[in-house]
Specification:
Chain lengths: ~325, ~325, ~325, ~325, ~325, ~325
């Protein structure tokens, strides 16, 4: 287990531990007779920090790559109002020296508990073809490994390892509640759609060293990639009813809800419209929660202007601020 | 209790009962020497039917008004592929002769059960000012009478008597489920907002003889009307915290979510974004459900083109059609 | 070969021949003692005409279905400014009595010549995997039969039998011209994309008795359907290069160019942007040509207001009108 | 009266006077052995200037806050093409040492003259309830004090102290002219709406130390805040006619004209459409005037690209530039 | 002077007078042995009415054309709730028999008074080139004749003969008021732009028999047509300053304000933004006034749904309705 | 002929040659006792490079202007990862010392060959008035000189000297291909429109020292400027048919296709819709080509985010990248 996290480093402290190299660049000293130094951005699951290697930088720079994990010894100092690590020693880490989970921001929920919800939901599907289809995915260990680790987005919502699983479990949970309000919705179809709607995201993102789109993710998009995985799954199940297949594929292809959000179809069935709005509800609430949580540490009542939402968000002011974390947890 | 409903009338049957006059017009016979006949549209909670008075039409026409309930005797016949009532006798009904509830389309859920959910939710609010505020509304009998009867919309969703109560209960129910997924949301604030977000709709619509906007509804809109009712309520509760009042009013003013949907604000707090998306989810699913339910009686796989949604909806085809009603009810 | 076409029928003429029944409805006579008559819409590849059966209508109505071809004897008359066929005899046609090609509006270009262009283009592809892929489609007789007959759209452009082939050949032809202007474009990729971009339309439409969307067409859309056919084709070709597959699929998924036009992707490669704009150019010119051609017969300088284009189109005025047909044909 | 204004400071001059601190930050010297210096932004009603405190900065920094007025002694110098004040002495100012009016950009028009126009307009309203309503606002000294000082916007138009009063007077003036062109408009209603449409702006902005939105302004918006003030005013006037109240509130709620501009209603009466367009005319002309005036000092024919208007504005070129100021003043 | 106007015709009255033929169509009698009758739409400046010629219709139909003025003798009767003229005699009118002004809806303001305002405005322009330019138009009798008669639009605003002059005078009047509020605006430039901005409308519409677009109007649009007239005018004035010409043309080309309203430019100068907003203000107020005035005769508080404005307009209710006409006229 | 181009300069090399001064600014040394140095941006047709004059900068700075060509002697060095020219000598160049063509980015195609295509196209127009009109432009040497040199845009496509000619020739070429597919299009009209649609661009841009809009370009726009040049040309040709003139002007005024793209008209004829889509096809393919070509030198598979296209473009990955340049040139 990692002992020092980026979030906790303070000026004056000694540093000794493993970090992921997000950025690496040689720069000349202002006094050029001194040659070059090395500027790094070191990261772990809690954030990023600037670092400098003053001595022997060109040689050291050749021993590791951006995107690799390194072991670092040094000290934190403050310069021009910013904290940075002055690196004394640095070397590539062996794979068994650190826990990869320490390197990336990840879901705070328990992965096994979430997988249990998924499996229980699969088992609760009564229509045999739909259950068989869902089982093909969630009984495939390799798929489950990917699915448990993938983020749900690059930036907007659930943009951390395990985010896809977390989002899926939340959508499934909300769908179950909706089914109680609207018994007219086809239960098995909605739950199967909820479980499978984003399976293409396992391949949409590359998340070895940073969360970004894969080529396939950019050129095809997860909506079509999910549809392909599901269609291949359907083809492998004998006598899967045509109408059911059509309705399920339609749910996946229309779950973004609007053309302008990259949806090749718009919802035309009760289950498709339900999935779209539940999915969007979960994504938007997560998005606001993340933005507000990030701000709370700064203690300002308003967040900075969010250029995508085109607004400031409000967290509350001074002693009047709602102690929502505590209250919430008391639930 | 009414014995004959419009939905059940068939050619050849005798008609004897009470109906609401939606439309009334004198027209000349083609052979003008015969004078004028009377064309009516008769309605009850199950639908509308055309009717004609051939004899003594001008005199009879003066005995009742459009928007009134009348007692009718006559017979159903088919003409040019359409069914119509040939009226033999017609007279205005006394108020105690019929049950107004039979005249309008209304929620199919149990009003008392729904009110019980509302009251239980009010009692479950822990923050005393918010609970007092909600109680001011739902312990006021006159308000509750209006609230239980009002529709939630003129056309799009929950557009029937009791629709406002039904919509509110559904939103509250879904919010409770969301609170389990996101304990960071302020429970009391979200539930109070869910209960009160549409209270202005009690005055936005006129629904004596048909569901339509009131003048106030058209010129001010229910968002501002709800805000005013809530603000007046807040003013009546001693020491209502300012920040809480601001946050609650913001939820009401932003619950339509987008400027282009007539929202004077867009959500800027976690509770506001949650309320907007839950409310929209419920409205859209109800809307699709109504359109599809109306179509199912016709047995066609596709609905007619919906000019507001700009698409056809799909209900399913032949024997493959999903028996969702039954399955749903088995829940 | 059909001898009488709807376009040529005139009041006073005798009618004897085969027509497709687009619409069939029994209606009561105004004098109801006379029972019912039958109103039909008869059609062939040149247009539609109203028809009436006055005698023995209920019995005759049971002998054929809407969407079937019938043999009709009767006479054309004018009534209230409209022409209609007074049917004397009518019976279902045997399949070998008429040429189905006479029944539907169809491309005016030579199908075999167009197929020759397609085949020549396939053979001219040098990259072996792309050529093999294109050949899989265009050497499959069953596919070619569908492809030669399918329309390219329901209403907007090339909305007639053979329209898909015609559109494809035009797009291929324009792409070849573009390749001369921009040699930087990857020739084989562009031409393969041009040939295959709309293959899903073979299943998007039902066109047995009228051109309309199939269920699959409505719920999935031809963009995703084309992608699936192409992806399956790629999977069947050994060692198809990944990058090439990705680029080709991207071209198909982005060829509508804009999200709001139902495109799940927007062009991100040179070949994709080229295909999108060539495809759109051909579709729009065909659309304008069809609208203007339909109007020219009426001799008015302006077409009626087109609700989709939201404008009137101008064909030219009086003797000044450009004799474009002739000049064009002189080419 | 302030003697030195930011706009007039030139390199080499001595500085001695009062300025508002817009920004305050301690920064380390590059040679860190020297500790920290203080960077300030000093402002008054004519603009902002950078300032530095080299000596004893950490101690001095604790004697005053951002947003406070200070007395400064020092000298202006030029460094890297930019002018800055080298501060020798600095201390917080007493409230009676300076005139607050010198600290903020403010309307250039005479406040008393503008208030006289407002009062004369109030007195000219003939309908007694409307006159009583307007009088409630403009005979309330506290309200008038706020109203005379508030800006009309944060950035776009009339974004300076007194801007709200100036904007209101201009709208009233233009409305009077419109009433001569369109005598069908209800004079008293239009003028009352013009006077009261933006009263909520007195609380929408905080403008003690900088012009910014208040929490209430951000979460509720001035449209709803104005409506609430007016509705409360109406409630205090006996027998205010319902229809008149409805029309007036509608004017306020719809004066932004379009949903996408945050208007909860769109104009549905003659007076509402008139108010919206007059208000918009005044705001846009003021906006262009301010952008062009700011540019004129630089002598370039084109302004920089305005990211909100998404265009450059044109002021004219060289000797051909229109001497509009002078001509205008000659009026 | 015409004695009978369409607006005043009532069932039972004799008709004798001159009307414009808006529509003319021969139709067969239901009993076809009776041959054909003639359906007409007759119009004058106050409205339209249906008319029928039962006797000798085919022969009479050849004696006049749609778009011509005819003399009619007959009687008004009511049929199926609609009033129609039963024509007994009808013949083409001689040009000297009627006053063309009686045939078309026209401005209710005094044309000579309005022209006096225009001329006075021209004379008040001090910059000699601008005055010379304006004078070229308004001292040209032929142009003034067209300009005084042209409508300002086909449907939306000032859509009647003289509407262009009326609109121009109103824009000029409002501009003068704006110049008092904003002396920074270049007076002569704004007034010249106000006078000339729509001169192309003299050729954009055909208004001999109905107000419709000319071919040129549809294919080029009045913005470009106005620019061409003004540019030709400028070319004819010696030493017209280049910068002034550019600014004036820019005002004309940008006066629609937004690309989506067909404006090839958007305002980039103070005068252009002022002209655009004044012009729009006048057009919108006129539009609302016309819609509401048309409704008032029907006595309903709400107008029908306006499909272009996408809303209902409110005129007021019962005795509470504002007597704006009278009050207005008392001004 | 220039011997050293910016693109080829490398650290350590001597510089001696002619460059255009894009930017010129005096800056103080950090050690202010040393006075000021001069920062320049030097450019030629292949790109830009930073340059510094350390010695005698204030005096030298007065000998030349931004936008002028200078002769420079010095040396390239690398500083902080960026290359810059340390200038030793610098003086204004005489006009006959350098070839202006070396100073600006320019088309890579042969100007004479392109002009030959234009002339051949003009001669191939059969309709005599259209041919005369086109000839007026392309037989006017002064116009041809401008037309051959002008860019087609400031940034988006063909944004280099000769870009207008290149774009025109490409549009003409693609139109000829389209005419083979659609013989119904009026050949002479389409080709004349293609040749003349952008002639106003000769005055829309200033391109002496950098490609930017002229005042006229910004205030009037090339669409209206092209229309004016063409209309003046038409006026000079005797008996030019009215309908032909109208159709040609319509093509020019509508060739941007959509109001939101600054088009005062939208296509309403077959020739106009064809021109718009061919023009857009060429512009977009050129745009993508330029963005991708610029990126290829960096060897990354994806371009940076393009803020106007709002996407990344894909060029291909590693060894799999398509060798399109070579293949293309092999054509």
């Amino acid at each position: 287990m990692k002992e020092q996290f980026v979030r906790d480093l303070r000026p004056g402290e000694r540093v000794l531990g493993f970090f992921l190299v997000h950025h690496k660049q040689l720069e000349p000293f202002r006094d050029r007779t001194r040659g070059e130094f090395l500027t790094l951005v070191l990261a772990d699951c809690t954030g990023e920090i600037l670092a400098r290697v003053w001595e022997d930088a060109p040689a050291l720079a050749e021993t590791f790559e951006q995107g690799q994990v390194v072991k670092v010894a040094g000290e934190v100092e403050e310069y021009m109002g910013r904290w940075q690590v002055i690196v004394e020693k640095i070397r590539p880490a062996e794979t068994d020296e650190y826990d990869p989970a320490d390197m990336f921001p990840a879901t705070e929920r328990d992965v096994d508990e979430m997988l249990a919800v998924v499996r229980e939901t699969v088992e609760g599907i009564e229509e045999p073809h739909l259950r068989a289809l869902a089982a093909r995915f969630f009984e495939d260990e390799e798929f489950v490994a990917c699915f448990s680790r993938a983020p749900a987005a690059r930036r907007i919502h659930h943009a951390y390892l395990g985010g896809l699983l977390e989002h899926t479990v939340e959508v499934v949970t909300l769908c179950k509640s909706l089914l109680e309000v609207y018994p007219q919705i086809h239960r098995d179809l909605l739950l199967t759609g909820a479980l499978l709607h984003d399976v293409g995201k396992t391949a949409e993102f590359a998340y070895e060293t940073d969360i970004d789109y894969s080529d396939e993710g950019r050129l095809l998009g997860h909506v079509v990639m999910s549809d392909r995985l599901v269609t291949n799954g359907i083809a492998a199940i004998p006598e899967f009813p045509d109408d059911l297949a059509l309705r399920l594929r339609h749910m996946i292809l229309s779950h973004h809800g609007r053309y302008e959000w990259g949806s090749p179809r718009r919802p035309q069935t009760l289950e498709a419209v339900a999935l779209h709005h539940v999915e969007n509800l979960d994504a938007q609430v997560n998005r606001f929660h993340r933005i507000l949580a990030a701000r709370r540490e700064t203690d300002k009542p308003w967040t900075d202007y969010d250029t995508l939402l085109r607004r400031h968000l409000y967290a509350g002011r001074g002693e009047e601020e709602l102690s929502v974390e505590e209250e919430g947890q008391a639930e």
